[in-house]
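Hey all, sorry for the wall of text incoming. These are the two entities for the joint prediction.
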Amino acid sequence: MAKKVVEIENLVKRYKDLIALDHLNLAIEEGEVFGLLGPNGSGKTTAINCILALLHFDKGSVKVFGEEMQPDSYGSKRQIGVVLQNVAVFEELTVQENIDYFCGLYVQEKQVRKQYVEEAIEFSGLENFRKFYPKKLSGGLLRRLNIACGIAHKPKLIIMDEPTVAVDPQSRNRILEGIQKLNRDGATIIYTSHYMEEVEQICSRIAILDKGRCVASGTKEELKSMIKMGEKIHMEAEGLAPYQIAEIKELRHVYQVDYRDGMLEIRCSGGKHNLVHILEYFGSREIGFGRVYSELPTLNDVFLEITGKDLRDHAEVK
Amino acid sequence: MQVFKAFFRILYKNKASLLMYIVIYLALAVTVGNVLEENSKTEFSGVSLDIGLENKDKGSLGDGLEEYLGSQNQILGVPEKKEDLQDAMYYEELDYVLVIPEDFTEKFLAGEQEGLLEGTVVPGSSSAYLVEQEMVSFLRTLAMYLKAGYGEREAVARTLKDVERKAEVQFLEAGDSQGKPTGFYYFQYIPYVFLIMMILGVGGCMKAFQNKDLAARNKCSSMSFLSQNLQIFLGCAVYMVIVYAAFLGMACLNVGDYMLSLRGALNAANAFVFGICSLSVAWFAVQFAQSSAMLTILSNVFGLGFSFLGGVFVSVDMMGESARNMAKFVPSYWYVVANEEIQKVGAFAEGEKVYQAFGMVLMFSLAFFSAGLLVNRMKVKSK
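and here's what came out:
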């Protein structure tokens, strides 16, 4: 059985009347890329801050590397790399000086640090920008600098809180590839985001947070198997009558039908030949149709079904 | 010492504005000091007046008086017409007009002195006072010799010899009319430049470290919070000492002799104490600085405000009573008090008032530091 790197038990954090974390339980194992998924205000950042002992919590416990996490748990902190949601670098220091500064908070030996800084610069692709000040960097480069500052000291556990916010696709891909490389090199990673594609792409296990609670956790496949939906079919069809929509809803495995602006969205539970059954219905009624495509459930569907709301568009509550 | 190094790297980035204030200070202190010194060198000079004198005396005493006044002033004739005389006085061609009467010697020998000589002066002129003082001095001495039994001519000769002695004026130190040396002016403006340099320098660094995201990031590290704060504190202290040493070095170059004196040593101590206070004020001010622009505003508010209120630029004696009372509540006032008192000190043991002023400045340091801590704590709590 893999060693547990982070153990959170019954964690409760309140901000006056608002319950930010409501008896949260999580266990993160060594070598995982663990995704914390949830809309804004779901408690992801609060959970991260509690793991890092940046916040005092009201109840529960947080253990990192088997040790109760406290503000002065410097032994554990030595092995943690942090990439916070907001870029936290010194405007007055160059790229290289910033990475050296943060690396130096963990690594005292000058020669080792020098080597680590070089490796972090290379890892984040900032070789040509080492003398640049943060103000001169684009949003993507700035995020890469933020990551370089967090991982330069070669931590065993890396916590990344939405590191790709407001980043262009090229930089985002580079960052995600980098995270996968860090994981291959042995680091355990906690990754929070509200971009489902990212989490699906890189995370080996995912926990979905909503209103400070863990509403589901497991691998992508496990999460998808938790929901009713097995397949989602989209069809272009003009002028469908309400009785026809009702008939479609009566087909085998179909449990939800939405028809809007000439586009039909049919949700089917697990089962085979769903698309064939639907096409047979259209053929027998001689109903014309345009493009047809079928897709497997996404994490957004999982989230939607579990929490009843869309992951990305949820209003921010802080 | 990662935090300490970063502190100085950030400080180094602000070097341009800090250097600018050093230049401003040097221009202010050295120029003002030199100008006042130059003025003081020419301030003592004999005053020679234009006197219109008509000597009608038939004896020798009138000649003696004429000779004496002529040695001190410019003797000119008296216009005959009354209008010409009035014009000459109106246009200040003559400062004083004296007519020595025919029976001057006779009456003086008889012991009559009151109302014997009457001069004409421009109303409100100080010239009459100076000429009359010269005449009184001459006639008193003359009367003494006559009483002592000397003859007319002998008495006049001795009197002239006595009253013509001039006082020797020796400048013990280059300074203004109140005897203040150039070194005094060099140190007078220190509060302004120290406050600004501390608020901009230390404040700029502290602001960076107090940035919410950076502070959180630093707290995540394996370096203890105490160690980080101690390194920042050490950075502030070292910066203060560097600034102090730089100004002391410049003082040695500008007023080297003064710096080797007791007063120079006390001024150096005064500046050091105020350096500590400036650091505390900077710590307090930075709690309110949300941006670099705000920091610049605060540096000017504290730098200029404390300097004007404390009597750095303009003596508090020239301010109203309420302003004078208010001045006591700013540390720069006590710095200026110490600076003034230092000029009266002859030995270390005599510097009681100076040491009291040092104490007051240190008390202000403690007060500003405590207030800064309080504000900081309130800010942390509100977050």
